[in-house]
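User: Is it possible to get a 3D structure for a protein together with its bound compound? The compound here is 2-keto-3-deoxygluconate. I've pasted both below.
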Amino acid sequence: MKIVDAKVIVCCPGRNFVTLKLTTEDGVYGLGDATLNGRELAVASYLKDYVIPLLIGRDARRIEDTWQYFYKGAYWRRGPVTMSAIAAVDTALWDIKGKVMNAPLYQLLGGASRDAVLVYGHASGSGIEETVQAAAHYIKGGYKAIRAQSGIPGLPSTYGVGRGVMYYEPAEKDAPPENSWSSEAYMNFVPSLFARLRKEFGNELHLLHDVHHRLTPMEAARLGKELEPHHLFWLEDPTPAELQEGFRLIRQHTTTPLAVGEVFNTIYDCQQLIQEQLIDYIRTTVVHAGGITHLRRIANLAEMYQVRTGSHGATDLSPVCMGAALHFDLSVHNFGIQEYMKHTDETDRVFPHAYKFENGLMHPGDAPGLGVDIEEELAAKYPYAVAYLPVNRKLDGTMHNW
Ligand code: KDG
Ligand code: MG
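Assistant: Yes, that's possible. Here is the predicted structure of the complex:
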């Protein structure tokens, strides 16, 4: 079953997406998400200039061999551009396999391990009361798990404050916005946000929080400790994880569960974190960590150490990735939770999909393959527009982690 056509579709229905479409000699096609927020065209070029010429004529059934061919064959391994490109190929091949077998992808991955997938949404506001209102909105919509972020008194802008109640979009057209940051102001404020949320909503609701790599390990240890009375589901990216051993220090001081990994590309980025049980949830996702094939490998390692999955699912991951993630989540034994941010209506029109949200849970649907399509003519009406993620500086102007 030869691959005879491969196309990279770049579109911007509200935000930029890069999609790979592979077609076989029998006319069956598969899709893969290749979106790397703020660096989209680098992956599009990697695919067009280096991957597609080698894909044409390959047997679409050989998913594992194709993965190894592009991972080992490039010589230059890992990195977000390479791994997003490999992910797109891998996802499209799984989509094709599902369509050929006339089965939803999760059936090929061992079948459903659960009835549906627990997801969390984002509640954010410019201050505590607005965040409480946003959380109430999500609860009304059926959510059982909510990530809460809030503007910090004294700081003009901060991470995670959305656009409208249901949407969040950090990338801005043209030049990167500059945010300002004070770890002291942040740490002094966050426990009061969660105290208020618990007071308002009680103990049953799952509450999550994203630090977005902004603290040192010792600062993160303090925050984790102070949040303990509020029983978070997880504290995400408390410190940059290039220094995996930095998590040992956090772990020694707090029982608040830790989640890491949305910027990881391979199993080697989280090997130590998992094997030393320094984290509770691994957030690697289909598009940035080498596709379904590699994500399953990470999940299998994590299972041995009682680490559960919690894949990244922000809106810069396209509906193609969301569909793939839900098949993975439904099937993998050590699933924990899935991030879910609603795409805009124009994005959903470009990518019609079978997955559904109901009562705080999601299901990928039973359409063959991924169950996600692309309306190419409509996509063409939304041309690419350069957009950058923000950068972050401390109050004295020092460049910090965004
Ligand atoms: O592209 C970057 C965003 O996806 C990221 O900032 C969102 O941290 C994020 C999250 O947890 O969804
Ligand atoms: Mg995050």
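The CA atoms of residues 189 and 377 lie 48 Å apart. The pocket of 2-keto-3-deoxygluconate (ligand 1) is lined by residues 37, 170, 210, 212, 262, 312, 314, 316, 339, 389 (CB under 6 Å).
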